[in-house]
Known about the structure:
The complex is a heterodimer of chains A (296) and B (316).
Chain A lengths: L1 H50 L3 H6 L12 H8 L2 H33 L4 H12 L3 H19 L3 H12 L1 H13 L4 H8 L4 H12 L1 H17 L2 H6 L8 H11 L4 H21 L1 H14 L1
Helix pairs in contact in A: 1-14, 3-14, 4-7, 4-8, 4-11, 5-8, 8-11, 9-10, 11-15, 13-14
Chain B lengths: L1 H4 L6 H6 L1 H39 L17 H9 L1 H17 L2 H15 L4 H9 L6 H11 L6 H9 L16 H26 L3 H9 L4 H12 L1 H17 L2 H6 L11 H10 L4 H27 L5
Helix pairs in contact in B: 5-10, 5-13, 6-10, 11-12, 13-16, 15-16
Amino acid sequence: MSAIGNVSLRDTVLQRGRSRERGRLLVFNHVVLLALTAFAVIPLVVVAFNSVKTNLEIGQNPLGPPVNVVVENFPNAWDKGNFATTMSNSIIYVVATIAAELVFGGLAAYALARKKPPGSDLLMLYFLVASTVPLWMYIVPLFVQINFLKVKIGVDARILLIMVYVATRAPLSIFLLRSYMIDLPTELEDAARVDGANELQVMTRIVFPLTKPGFLTVGLVVGLGVWNEFLLALTFIHDPKQYPVTTSFYKFVDRFDRDWALTSAGAIIIIFPVMVLFLSLQRQFIEGLAEGGVKL
Amino acid sequence: MAVLTQKKPTTLVEKFNDQTWRRKFVNNVLIPWIFIAPLLIIHLYVVAIPAVQGIYMSLTDWKGVGMNVNFVGLENYRELFFEDETFGKALSNNILWMAFFLTVPFILALFCATMLSQVRRGGMLYRSILFIPYVLASVVTATIWKNLLNPQRGIGAAVDNILGLEGVFGVAYLGRTDSALMSIAFIDNWQFWGFLMILFLAAMQSIPPVLYDAAKIDGANRWQEFRHVTLPGIRPILVFMFMMVAIFSFLAFDYIFLLTQGGPGGASEVIATQLYKNAFFRFQAGYGAAQGVVISIFAGFIILIFVTVKRRGWDI
């Protein structure tokens, strides 16, 4: 009895002590956090400012808020940067890669999580080892192969780039989706089988819908990665009509090096879709990317 | 009864004629492997086969074009380590890069995550804003910072202006041999560290608060609390990210290629940018492939260290 009394007394003392301490220290915490937030945001604010200034104004006032807001930079950048083409290319790359990754990854993960055919342990080991092989180990021979398919066989370079994206993200999607599926209780699937569902129905009607968060995570991680991807697109896409926004923007900045108003507007155009998606799906983005980063 | 007395199928033909066996084979072996096949085939074609080819290519003097391929053994590797001084420079830049990324973002992220884990009000807002740079494309981040580091119109010039100085802070950070590499690392880190912070924050939030109370009772100060409760609590993710960042340090490419292409005068060159130029601009495919193998060996070595340490159960 007295022991319990002691504990609760100690608890209240601690609680009061802690909240007082917290009240004091939080000022320091907020100062630090505000400074770091400013560090993260100010560069973006400067770009946003510059995207609505004229070059003349940027020359006199390169960092501050605009005095006269002009919006012509955006249609200008849109036209000169070929954004109509490159945006739709990027959307094609993102959507096609996500679709292929989710379908193939989902099928493979289901087989590995539920069916475990002979050889699946070896396969998991293969993907584990392969996921640690750096791109630099195989990029030169891969370039030769892709070039062969492109030039000699006449395969569309876009399809080949999507294939490379799907492959390089395969270990991530298999590990992530498989771990989601393994965590599912099997009772539901058994119940469905008892009710006469065949294997295909069990997979598409029970397992896949229940693994939706896993699919969403893989989709977000893969989609963001492909939208922002630079090196592989630079290596494999040489026709300006097929450029994604990233490599196209790289050439654009190179060409209009001194035209900050134009390049800032271009930067905003690229950031915009990602920001809208990020701000509307903050939790899924942050948790998904954290999970994807740790899984692999 | 007939079913019970039926002989178990032994030969392949018998197995194939036995319906139950056939159904089992189809359901438990054939269909699963058909499900696995597309992704596996793509992956073998894009990653595994070229990786093996890369090892062979690194032993040749192939230029990347034409049919003239001579097997030269370890000649490329000998040249890399004993003759090519630019490679030595690139390798030491990779090590500098690693030293930067194993300290700066980790300290920043640990500090910020500790601060953020104690805040209740506005915690989510801070978290989201601090994460924003991580979702930006490297081309965009590079362009933004190239402008901000401009000697005449960037932050440095503005600081000079305020202090009434000229050309003290407003220097070409990316254009000078002594500051190019670390400026690029700074920019890369601006984009990256928020991600590390989120990982640490998530780990910190899963530490039971009871442990902090116990530390308080034992009279621990804030540093001791961090050292003996927080750090051990987030150790798994801390160690894992140490390994990942160490590996990434040998793969670094995007920001260096975008901002300086390795210049000025090779001051910010790393192995990956050198490899890219050798393989795709200078017609030295075999030599570039050898550099790719070297990068992979470094990465493998780092993984090996961590696996060994973990096996031995060291308290890290």
